[in-house]
Amino acid sequence: MNPWLTQILERITTVWKKWTVTQKLIFIGVLVGVIGGVVLLAALSSAPSMVPLLYRSIPNEQEMARITQRLDQEGVRYELTSDQRILVPDEKTAKRLRAILARENLIPKGTDPWQIFDVERWTITDFERNVNLRRAITRSLEQHITALDDVDAASVTIVMPEDKLFAEDRHPVTASIIITPKPGSDITQNRKKIEGIVRLVQYAVEGLKPENITITDQSGLVLNDFSGLADVDRLELAKREMKTTRELEAQYKKSILAALRQIYGEDRVQIINLDITLDTSKKKIDTEEHFPIVINPDNPKTPYDESAMEGSKTLSITLSKEVTEEKFEGTGFNPEGPPGQEGQTPPAYKDLQNMVGRYSKNSVIQNEVVNTRKIQEEKAPWEIRRVTCAVAIDGVWKWKYNDKGEAILRKDGSIEREYVPLTESDIAKAKALIEHAIGYNRERGDSVTVQNVMFDRTAQHQKEDREYRAKLQLQRTILYIMLSVAILLVSFIVFRLISRELERRRRLREEELARQHQAMREAALRAAEEEGAEVEMSVEERARLELQENAINMAREHPEDVAQLIRTWLMEE
């Protein structure tokens, strides 16, 4: 090791040994704090910086809620600052989200599209600024459009004519865009996505109108010519109608099956058909309602109606009134023509000449108006025109039992069953439940049919028969095993008793022979002792004699131990 490092380590070791425990703990705490601070500083410095989604604050809470809700749907992490700004992780994500917000018309009102170009330079001319601005707008639009998931590449050209003194001399701002869709994308047929690109370009260029924007694909096909997308829109509408119909049918089926299967069982209810016909045509109804002017309105605190009592009346306003009155009394005179000429008076009036009469005519034309209320009503996006539902409910299969409570089996081993169909009352109740579940309306032609149908349960019955036969066989097997075990136990007990009895008899017989032999030996010994002759004993006889003497001495000295030993022998035998 390097001598310099060795000296430094020796010094550190010497100083460390001189320090007290408190000094060592303080040093360790300071060292840990320094290392933690360095690690925290490195983590904070390496954390990615957030970029603003929009270059302005959003004080409107509703606009902020709509934007954040859309960001949540995209699954993007974002932060809200104290000045009502939205920050996202990187610029690429910000561009993609700006395109989505522009496509769905979620850009807040008053957003300045030129905020990014607010950097002033004193070394360039106004013309250069305009050129740089146009290039920046073009480049920004290309980046925004390319950030879309359906676009592989984009080329944008913007024409900004010079300002003129008179408005009629000014040329409109125009933009042409060529996009290359990604493989598998439906952007060329999706009107909503094309409209999003149109809005994106319109918001980015001041004075640009949607009709002055042309979007084509790489083959030159104009995509924002929506007059040619009528068939596509009609197809999209049909798809939505079919989707809504399927969702409604699934919802109705779920509610019907949930109600009926809880009552009749899971496998006894089947919906044969449920068809819903929707009316998705747009209708707007304008209604004009006329109602009288009430002087004395009804008091809701009283139980009677004051507006209909005597003395109350309804008024109207007179718009125009025409009164005509004619009266005539005296002799009628019909003038003739010049003397000597035939007059022009009709014969009917000639008969009335010189007649005394009275003529009177009264005519009153009065136009009245009452209170008028105009109502504009727009129908819902869809309306159920007709609902038809057909439901089949199975009856119940019951087993037949004999007097002993056992299931009756046929010759082929199957269980004998009886089918119990639904009653008319049960069918009527099920039909009423279904009608309430689908919102039955006879006026629109709804139809509900409920029938008792016998389902094919052959496989289920065969399975039940097999399980029942297996159960019976298992019961018989268990019974036979128990009988066999019982017979074996009885046989073992009898064999054990017989063996003990034979063993006891054999032991008694051996003990008797041993006693006889012992008696004979003792008699021989006594006889030999009386005669004074010496008798030689074998080693076994001497050992048996010593053992017998020891047992006799032990029985005399420890009678309790000997008794316990005898009891143990008897229990073992």
What's a quick, concise take on this entry?
The protein is α+β, with helices and mostly antiparallel strands.
3D structure, described in words:
The structure is a single chain. With about 575 residues, this protein is α+β, with helices and mostly antiparallel strands. It contains 12 helices and 17 strands. The strands form 7 sheets. A 3-stranded antiparallel beta sheet has the order 1-3-2. Strands 4-5-6 form a 3-stranded mixed beta sheet. Helix 6 links the parallel strand 5 (about 175-180) and strand 6. Helix 5 packs antiparallel against helix 6 and helix 11 (about 540-555) crosses helix 12 (about 560-570). The two termini are about 85 Å apart.
Please describe the structure with a list of short key phrases separated by commas or semicolons.
573 residues, alpha+beta, 3-stranded mixed β-sheet, 17 strands
Average pLDDT taken over every residue: 78
Q: Name the helicity range.
A: 40-55%
- Portion in strands: 15-25%
Q: What is the rounded Rg?
A: 58 Å
Question: Main β-sheet, in a few words?
Answer: 3 strands, antiparallel
Taking strands numbered 1, 2, ... along the chain, how are they ordered across the largest sheet?
1-3-2
Tally of DSSP helical segments: 12
In terms of structural class, how would the helical and strand content be classed? alpha+beta
Shape: flat
Q: What is the straight-line distance between the termini?
A: 87 Å
Number of strands: 17
Give, in order, the helices and strands. Answer: HHEHEEHHEEHEHEEEEEHEEEEEHEHHH
Low-confidence stretches: 116-121, 309-313
